[in-house]
Each structure stands twice: as C-alpha cells, then as structure tokens.
Design a protein that fits this description.
Blueprint (H helix, E strand, L loop, with lengths): L3 H5 L3 H4 L3 E5 L11 E6 L4 H10 L6 E4 L5 E3 L4 E7 L7 E3 L4 E5 L4 H11 L1 E2 L11 H7 L2 E2 L2 E2 L4 E8 L4 E4 L5 E3 L2 E3 L4 E9 L1 E2 L6 H13 L19 H7 L6 E2 L2 E3 L7 E3 L5 H19 L8 E3 L4
Parallel strand pairs: 2-5, 3-5, 4-20
Antiparallel strand pairs: 1-2, 6-7, 7-15, 8-16, 9-10, 11-12, 11-15, 13-14, 17-18, 18-19
Length: 302
Amino acid sequence: MNCATHFNELSPEFSARVLRDVSMAKHTSWHAGGPAELFFAPRNAGDLAAFVRQLPAHIPLLWVGLGSNLLVRDGGFPGAVIHTHGALGLLERISATRINAEAGVPCARIARQCVKWGLGPAEFFAGIPGTLGGALAMNAGAFGGETWKHVIEVDVLDRRGIRRTRRPAEYKVGYRSVVGPPDEWFMGARLEFERQPGADNEAIRVLLERRKQTQPIGEWSCGSVFANPPGNYAARLIETAGLKGFRIGDASVSLKHANFIINHGAASAGDIEAVILHVQRTIEAMYHVLLQPEVRIVGVPA
C-alpha cells in the first residue's frame, strides 16, 4: 500500500507516533485481514481529539477497540485506524445509579465493576466480546440485555476534532442498529442502572458458563456474524439449512453454534467473507430471508 501521501500530511507532533502498514490480523478477534495504512494509538481523549483535528479530511477513519466485530479485507484499510483500547479506559461511578465509561473500556469490565458497585442489571455486558465504543455503535446485546437501554448521554467526536455531548433522542436506535449524525464517533457514555445491593459475580458466572456451553469460546471468531431476522434466529436457519461445518479454506461455520464462523488458524479475510456470502445466498434461496451481517466488513480486497 502507498501511504506516503497521507503520512506526509500529518503534523510533526503526531508523525513520529503513527505506524504504517500495521497488520489488522493482530488487532481483530478473527486474526485475519490486511494492513492499516496508518495506525494510531492515542494516549487519552484530548490526544485523540488533537490527532483527528489535524488529520487531512480526505483520509478515511476506522475506530477499533478489541476488534471483535470487524473484518478487514486482505487488501487492508486505506486510511487511518484509531486504536482506542488501552487509551479511552476511564470507568467511574458518578452517582448512586450512574456510571461514566469511555469507549475503550471492555464490556466485560463494565459488568464486573457494576457488580462490585451493586448496580444492575449489567451482567449482560459480560457476554459482549468488545468495548463500549463498539457496543454503542451497534446497540450490542447479550442474554436479553441491550446497551442503549441504559444510555443517558454519549460523548462524541466529529471529523473536525470537536467534542460534544448528545442525548439518546438524537439517535435512531434499533436491534443491532444505531443511526445518528454522520462523521461522528463515540468517545464514551453515561449509563444508568438500578441499585442491586448484595449483587455478586454468580450471575455473571452462570451466564458465561451458559455461553461457554453453547458458543465456540476460545476459537477465533467475531462472535455472532448475523443479526437475527424478525421472528426467527439466524443460527436456527443456518443449522436447518445444513451449513454447520461448511468450509472455505481455513474458515468454517462453527459446529457448535451456526451463527459463528471460525478461523481455524490460516484463514484469509477473503475465506471468511466467502463463507459469509455463501451462507447468505443459501438462506435466501432456501427460506427467502436475507441475513444481515452484524459484523462490519471494511477495506479493499487483495
């Protein structure tokens, strides 16, 4: 990839800290995908805002936390990847029932900390394999809970590097879907829960044990690939279509849970995307249902 043009337009204060041609296979839970043209890990929210403010407007941006809901095609991402995990990590209690969390905080950490604070229901966050930023972007959920049911307000950053606070009423929130002002990214949120004195980690343990029994935990995947269609379950359709175990290269539909696609070690992003497309076409042909991916697919083919 030719990143000289983009790199030379960065200001000196950031150019020494921006990496080039970083493999996104190292930063996604599928362990597949091509390189990021530019890769930046901010120190904090202010540092991130300053970087975005001076970044040329024509350079595409991709925000990545734990990379659990992301497939970067083998040709890589022609722009700047901002790696929030490890930087936007503030998590604090701000009132009897409210917390403040930045976008880089893992959802599992939110679940555990809310239990310590005696707040809930927050256990469902333990079943979301990403960070709060990604959960806000797609209204992630697990075990019957959803992120935006607890959102009081969000902090966002726009393409000009301007930070502002927005309310839920400014977004159209649905099942695994959040639509809001364009060219803005979530920096954090205030979340509200109920007081649950005496809460302990047992509920989280039970939920995670159930997840372990039904999902291919420990294998390379992105979590659930497809959103459930209205009145049905993606996994049920895929399983009844006989697609469990369907394989292209080193990528296959999980034998344990049909809505998971596994990288067995050497799958390319192209292999994974080909399995996704095959599943979609098969389900549409058999059941006249077009499965919509939850996973975000970005970048260019090899």
